[in-house]
Structures are given as structure tokens and as C-alpha cells.
Design brief:
SH3 type barrels, single chain, 15% strand, 6 helices, 62% helix, 175 residues, alpha+beta, elongated, Helix Hairpins, 5-stranded antiparallel sheet
């Protein structure tokens, strides 16, 4: 049985209307969410504890684009393409997630392995006075990803373990 042209045209028009409706609803909800967050003064409260984050804009955009996506998928169901588009969107999201994860751990992994090597060699311990480049002070903590050194001025300097393993470090005698 062949599909009739009026049915195809009706489905296309219905799909476009649903997508358009999703865009309108997305824009409305973005404004509403921003007003709700602004009424609770959440950005000001976050600022008071030292967190600078555009919560209103982030939450509004998240809702807006989520509703855009929902409208697009719902509109494509009228054309029978929702499974293909959903697979493409999910694949793209997983690829983005993998990229974000890899970028977030790219500095951690080398520091972690350098920390293991530093711990195994036991050349330095907490309480040792050291000098590295322009940093001079007492080691207060040796972790798996960083070393913390307290300078004579009382500043706490956090040195990534990769730098500790790659640079010349002088262990000073206790005076």
C-alpha cells in the first residue's frame, strides 16, 4: 500500500509545528527559570561564598536547549526518523562526554604516576626543607598528585608532582 501525498504533507506540517512549538516553549521556559532563580537570589548567595557562576543563564539555557531537543525529536516522530536522530544525538553526546573526561584527567594521570614514583623513591618527606627554581620552603604535604611547600613568608605553594619529578630539587640541611 503506497503512502498518499496528503498524508506525507500532513506529517511534515505537523512535525514542523511541533518543532516550532518546542522552540517557543523553550524560550518561554528559559525566561521563567531565569526569573525564578533571580527571585531566590541564588547567584548573590553563591557569590557570598566565593563561587562565581552564571546560574541563571546556565539553567535557563539548559532548559531551553533541552526543550528544543525534545521538540525536534517529537517533530521527527511524525516523519518516522526519531530513532535515527536519537542514535546520532546520543552518539554525539557520548563522544562529547568522552572528550570532556579525557580532557579533565589529562593533567591528573601524569601527576598521579609522578606521585607514585616520588613515594617509592622516598627522597623527600614531610618536614624537609627544599629549594626548587624560585621556591624555597618546608614540605608540609606530599600527595599523589601534588606537593605542598610552606615558604618562609608563610605562603603555601602547591607544586604538581610532574614538576617535582622533572625539575632539580635541592634538599637543604636542617639548621
Amino acid at each position: 500500500m503506497a503512502i498518499e501525498y496528503p498524508t506525507i504533507i500532513t506529517n511534515i506540517v505537523a512535525g514542523l509545528l511541533v518543532v516550532g512549538f518546542g522552540i517557543i516553549i523553550g524560550n518561554i521556559f528559559k525566561v521563567v527559570i531565569k526569573k525564578i532563580i533571580r527571585s531566590f537570589e541564588l547567584e548573590r548567595l553563591l557569590g557570598e561564598i566565593g563561587i562565581r557562576f552564571p546560574l541563571e543563564e546556565f539553567a535557563g539555557s539548559l532548559i531551553q536547549y533541552g526543550l528544543y531537543l525534545a521538540g525536534l525529536i517529537l517533530g521527527l516522530t511524525f516523519l518516522g526518523l526519531e530513532k535515527i536522530v536519537l542514535i546520532v544525538i546520543l552518539t554525539g553526546l557520548f563522544i562529547l562526554l568522552a572528550i570532556f573526561i579525557l580532557l579533565s584527567i589529562k593533567d591528573f594521570i601524569p601527576n598521579f604516576f609522578a606521585g607514585i614514583i616520588i613515594a617509592l623513591k622516598k627522597r623527600f618527606k614531610e618536614g624537609d626543607n627544599i629549594e626548587m627554581n624560585t621556591i624555597e620552603g618546608k614540605i608540609v604535604h606530599i600527595g599523589l598528585s601534588e606537593m605542598q611547600v610552606k615558604t618562609k613568608d608563610g605562603d603555601l605553594v602547591i607544586i604538581p608532582n610532574v614538576l617535582v619529578s622533572r625539575n632539580v630539587m635541592i634538599k637543604k640541611k636542617k639548621s
